[in-house]
Hints:
Helix content is 38%, strand content 11%. The protein contains twelve helices and eleven strands. Helix 7 packs across helix 11 (200-211). The N and C termini lie far apart (62 Å). The relative contact order is 0.07.
Amino acid sequence: MLSRKKVLVVYDDVSELSQFEFLFGGIDRFGRGSLVIVTTRNKQVLFQCGMNLIYEAKKLNKYESIQLFCQHAFKSNHPIKYQLGLSRMVLSFANGNPLAIKFFGSSLYGKNKNYQESAVKDLKQIPNPDILKLLRSSFDGLNPVEKDIFLDIACFFKGEDRDFVTRIMEACYPSAYSRIENLIDKSLIYISQNKIEMHDIWQHVGRSIVHYESPSKPETRSRLWIPEEIYDVLTKNNGTETITGIVLDMSKLAKLELEPVAFMKMRKLRILKFYHSCGRTLLLKGLLSLPDDLRYLCWEGYPLKTLPSTFHPRYLVELDMSCSHVEQLWEGKQVLFFLLI
């Protein structure tokens, strides 16, 4: 019946082509002059639907963000000084995302000043679980490899060179290049000056997903990046096979003294990076082993003259031992099929 009529169709939040086809069969089913508007978080869906004009929604600017937040938090378009200060703190986290701005604003409406200030201060440390639940649907729609790459970027590689990240991801996962492209199409990451970027709120979503893998036991999470937690795991020799990546900014710690068996239990560790670490990491008793599954090893200021003799880095694609004491990488010969840098 619709094929004989000129119609306006708005189809919101389409995630798969099959959803569109199930209802309409295709855009060629409508009468001449019809207008079909489809909204989606996946650009590929628009190509598959045969859309001939694609508009990418931009994030709200500063003025629009403040206005939207104040409308929901204070029911006002003219915030007073105190309210404006709260607005700026929220917007530094929401980063122009209207859904997040509306949610944060509504959650503060009707609350007293002390509550509002406390809630806003907690945003970056403990993101609101309700907003994370709303945004997580995009993550849940990813396939397993895309989920892993998304979490690696959120925890370790935001702001890093695209070619570098792709090289590491290709060593860790099958078809990583196309998976990264899919994350771009789904607006979960973006490229700026050849660097892989991610909005702050999506980074918080990713890191929160990893945190809630095991809230009270970081040693059983998949990825570690918080210096204090890494310090506890390594100094107590609590590492497990669950951990696949550790990136440690040593400028946040005075020093890190490790036992020889610090990495013994972390057999599935693929990413290990210590930076700003010259003179801060101590291996006074040596180091017995490193995980053979490592794809990326960066240890600035590595304090020993050689890597462990039991380390067989057959999957390693990048090795960075800047400012280290290394005189010889290892004794004997190593077969390094994949090492590029």
